[in-house]
Design a protein that fits this description.
Layout (H helix, E strand, L loop, with lengths): L6 E9 L2 H12 L2 E2 L10 E6 L2 E8 L2 H5 L5 E7 L3 H10 L3 E9 L3 E7 L5 E7 L16 E8 L2 H12 L2 E8 L2 E7 L10 E7 L8 E7 L3 H10 L3 E2 L4 E2 L5 E6 L5 E6 L2
Parallel strand pairs: 1-4, 5-8, 9-12, 13-17
Antiparallel strand pairs: 1-5, 2-3, 3-4, 6-7, 7-8, 9-13, 10-11, 11-12, 14-16, 15-16, 16-17
Helix pairs in contact: 1-5
């Protein structure tokens, strides 16, 4: 993929029941998810928005669950060289869960974690086409990437050094700054901002990336989450810029966010 180094290029749901997750997210977000695996030798289904692929669904098998894997959403950051990035990550205090490896015709990837223990993937895709899994205003795509961390200063130093991410202003929260993030050299316009990081509100709160999927109607999506067995973690709320958002867990406990116009 030709996306610049440090771009979000893919999103993946890890779930113990792909068919149940398929029914839930198709009903809530409006996706079409493959009924069968799209990759030989593993249970992996593609997620389709109206204008193209938005991510994938990996089935957690018994061995993965026994090894500690849990339902969650993970993001892939595109890099110029996976092996070099992994070595830089280790030197900066990150850890490696899966070392660099190839998927034929897909690309080279590694599953890693930042120094605060937040997991994500790095990848160099084999395709010559850009990924559009992230789309700030694209319905059915991730519209916002948000990190809650136990040490926001250390996290920014880590990601800035690894990917060149820059701060683009922010706003104060009672527990710290909500700092907007953009890619290096993306310019000063707010439409270059793709997400934010902040310290977690309370020490007992988990750290991690939350990905917000764009839907047409936030109230309808909130109702569908409840109808289909998920759990809204808040009512829809307005955020600066006029959009409305809420967090939820799916029926297996994976956390995600939804966003829609006011």
């Amino acid at each position: 993929m030709t996306n610049p180094h440090g771009s979000w290029i893919w999103y993946e749901l890890m779930t113990p029941d792909a068919q149940a997750s398929r029914a839930f997210y198709e009903g809530v977000v409006g996706w079409k998810i493959d009924a069968e695996s799209a990759m030989p030798g593993m249970e992996y289904r593609m997620i389709h928005a109206a204008d193209g692929q938005a991510g994938g669904v990996m089935t957690l098998d018994a061995d993965m669950l026994a090894g500690g894997a849990r339902p969650c959403w993970l993001g892939y950051v595109g890099v110029d060289d996976v092996d070099t990035t992994v070595e830089q990550l280790k030197a900066a205090g990150g850890s490696v869960h899966l070392p660099p490896q190839d998927i034929p015709d897909v690309g080279r990837f590694a599953m890693v974690a930042d120094p605060q223990g937040v997991p994500f993937y790095v990848m160099r895709g084999a395709s010559d086409e850009d990924s559009n899994a992230y789309g700030r205003m694209a319905t059915g795509h991730v519209s916002w990437n948000e990190l809650q961390t136990s040490d926001d200063a250390a996290s920014f130093t880590f990601y800035n050094g690894l990917f060149g991410w820059e701060k683009a202003g922010g706003m104060p929260m009672p527990w710290g700054e909500y700092a907007f993030l953009r890619n290096k050299g993306a310019g000063d316009a707010m439409d270059a901002v793709w997400g934010a990081m902040m310290p977690r509100e309370k020490p007992e709160h988990p750290v991690g990336w939350t990905f917000y999927f764009r839907v047409p109607d936030i109230e309808a999506a909130h109702a569908r989450v409840k109808e289909l067995g998920g759990t809204p973690l808040s009512d829809p709320m307005e955020v600066p810029g006029g959009e409305r958002v809420f967090h939820a867990t799916d029926p297996h406990g994976a956390v995600f966010g939804l966003v829609a116009p006011k």
